[in-house]
Amino acid sequence: MSRRYLMWFAHEHLDFRHAEMQSILSMLKIPIKFVEKPSEHQPYWIVDLPSETCVKQIAARSVLLKNCIELWSRAKSEAQLHKNLNSAVKNISNKWIIPNVDNEISDTHICPCQLLEVCSDSKKSFKVDVETFCKHFTMKEKVDKIEKFSYLPLHGPVKLNKPDVTLSYIEFYGVDPNNVPEEPCDLFFGKWIADGQRDLIQVHSLKKRQFIGNTSMDAQLSVIMANQAQIASGDIVLDPFVGSGSLLVAAAHFGGYIWGSDIDYMMLHARTRPTRVGQKVRKKEESIRGNLKQYGIESKYLDVLVSDFSLPMWKESLKFDAIITDPPYGVREPTEKIGIERDNYTLSEHHLDNHIPSKVEYGLPHIYSDLLNFAARHLNMGRRLVCWYPVVRDEYLEEQIPTHPCMKLVSNSEQVLSKLTARRLLTYQKISDDIPETPHDTRATVHNFRDRYFAIGEISRREKKERRAEELANSAIYIKAKQDRSK
Amino acid sequence: MKLITHNMLTSKCLKGVVTGYPLAINATNIKVTEVDFNPEFISRIIPKLDWEVLWRAADSIGHSDGLPQTIEPKFEENSDFLKKAHKVLLEVEIEEGNLVCPESGRRFPISKGIPNMLLTEAEVQ
C-alpha cells in the first residue's frame, strides 16, 4: 500500500525544485504520484510514495526539501481539519476515504485509523510541533492549538526531547508577508518522518571553508548539482574547470571519488591572492584536498591536475559517472587556453622549467562545444553532465542552449544574478554512444556572454548617467521655479 | 599524484605523439597516506585499469611488493588482493618528480603532488 506524504520545501531556488527532486527520484527509482497538482506558489507537494524507507532515502539527498510528514489530514479550514481527524478515528477500512474523486483539492479525504493507532501505544512518548508559515504566534497560543487535538487516541507520555513519535501541525498563511490573511489558507496534520539536507548549507558554508576562490559555488547550489548529476557512492566524478573545488565537496559528500583539472596553476597550488577580506596570505593547509579533509571526506580525493581543457589528456577508454562543472564566463574569471598570437614562437631550453605559458581567448562557445563533445566521449551511458551557462536575460532563447546528438537536455533551471543577467543550470544525459566522427560543433547557436555582458553594461551605464543628468536638470528647474514664485 | 591517475593520463596532446601512453614516472619524493578502504570501489575500478601499466608503474617506484602481475578471475572475492590494489591505487602518492612522454621524452613536472600537464605556447602552435 502506498502512503500519502506532505513534502515541505524551502521557498527559494523555485526553478530548481522539480529538477532536483526528479533527479533524486529517478536515481533512487522511486515512483511518485501527485495527490494534488503542485503549484509554484505553494512550498509543498502532497504525494503518494511507496514506503517510509523511500521517504527517508529522498530526504537524505534533497537540499531543497525542508521536511516530510506522513499526512493524516489536510484541510482548507481549521474546522474541516478537526472534522477529518475525528472521522479518521472511526475509519477502520484501512484505506483513505475519498468522498469526491473529481475534486482536485484533497481537503475532505479521511485517513485510515491504522495510521493513528501505530502512534497510540501507551509506551510511545510523543510531542506535537506547531509550525505556522507567514504568521507568528506566542508559545501560549501554540499550546492552545495543540490542546484542540485532545480527542486523538494518543495514550503515551508527552516528551519534548527525542520522543518516539513527533506529530506535526502546520498552518500555512500564504507566501506574501505583506498580505497575511486572518485565517490560515491551508492546514496539515501528520507524523513527522524526516528532515531534508538544509543543515548541509551551514555545515558546508563557504564562510567556514578553508580554501575558497572568487567564484566558489555556494554550498546549496553545489549540493543541487551533485543531486542532478545523480552522484552515488563509489562514482567517479570530474570537474574540468575545478577552481577551488567547491562542486567536488558536494560530490564527495555523496560518496563520489573526485578528479579535477584547471588551467590555473596558481589556483590549484593555492597561491592566488586570498579571497577573504583582511586575509593577506594563503595559509599552508589551503587546497582542494584540505577542504575535503576539513569535512572528513579526504578518502574521496583522487587528484587535481593543471591542464588545458582544450587539449586531450585522459586516455580514450576512461569513462566518468558524472561531470559537474562551472566554466569561467569571461567576466569574473578569464576564459583562456594556452596559445600565442605570434607565429614561429620558440622557447629556449633553460627557460622551460619555470615557464608560465601565455594564453589566448578560449571563447564560451568553444568551451561548451568542447565540453559537450568531451562528455559524449567520456561519460558512461545514461550518466549526466551538469554545468552552468550564463545568459543575458532579455535576449535568452531556449534555442541558444548548446546541443549535441549524444546528449539529451533533461533540465534547465534559471538562477537570476542581476537585473540583466542570469545563469542556467543545464543537465544533460548521455543517450547514445554513436559519437559523430567530426567533433560536433555547437558554436553556431551559442552566443558570447562576455561580449553581450559588457555591451549591455555599457548601454545601461550610459542610460543611468543620462537619466541622472535629466533628473538634476529637472530638479534645478523646479528649485528655480520655486524660488521665482517665492519672490 | 596517485597511481590511479597515472593509469588514466596520456601525453597525446603533444604534436606528433600517437598514443602517449603510458607515461614513465621519475619520482624524487613518494609518500604513503592512509585512505579509507572501499572494496566495492576498488572492485569496480579494476576492470577500467590497464593492470600491466599499474604494475609496472608501481614497480618503477618500488611499491610492487606482493602485487600480482596479472589479475585473477575472481578478484572481487579476494580481500587480500583488493587491499593491496587499494594501497597501490590510492595510498601511494608521488609528491615530487616528473611524468615523461614515452614517445617524445617531454617531461611534465609534479610538484606538491599536483602534475602540471600544461604545454607551452610554442608546442600548441
The residue-averaged pLDDT of chain B reads: 93
Main interface pair? A-B, 41 and 35 residues
Mean pLDDT of chain A: 89
* Class by alpha and beta content of chain A: alpha/beta
Number of strands of chain B: 4
Question: What ranges of chain A have pLDDT less than 50 throughout 5 or more consecutive residues?
Answer: none
Specify Rg of chain B, calculated over alpha carbons: 15 Å
Q: Per DSSP, what share of the residues of chain A sits in E-state strands of 2 or more residues?
A: 15-25%
Predict the CATH topology of the largest domain in chain A: Rossmann fold
Number of helical elements of chain B: 4
Spatial ordering of strands, largest sheet of chain A = 2-3-1-4-7-6-5
Q: Radius of gyration of chain A, rounded? A: 28 Å
Strand content of chain B: 15-25%
**In CATH's first tier, which class of the largest domain in chain A applies?**
Alpha Beta
Family (chain B): Belongs to the TRM112 family.
Protein name (chain B): Multifunctional methyltransferase subunit TRM112-like protein
InterPro entries (chain B): Trm112, Trm112-like
GO biological process, one term (chain B): rRNA (guanine-N7)-methylation
How is this fold's topology laid out?
The complex is a heterodimer of chains A (487) and B (125).
Chain A: E1 3-9, H1 17-28, E2 33-34, E3 44-49, H2 52-59, E4 65-75, H3 78-90, H4 113-120, E5 126-133, H5 139-147, E6 165-172, E7 186-195, H6 199-203, H7 219-228, E8 236-239, H8 246-253, E9 257-262, H9 265-268, H10 288-294, E10 301-306, E11 320-325, E12 336-338, E13 359-361, H11 364-378, E14 379-392, E15 407-416, E16 421-430, H12 449-486
Parallel strand pairs in A: 5-6, 8-9, 8-11, 9-10, 11-14
Antiparallel strand pairs in A: 1-3, 1-4, 2-3, 4-7, 6-7, 12-13, 14-16, 15-16
Chain B: H1 3-6, E1 24-32, H2 39-45, H3 51-60, H4 79-91, E2 92-100, E3 107-111, E4 114-115
Antiparallel strand pairs in B: 1-2, 2-3, 3-4
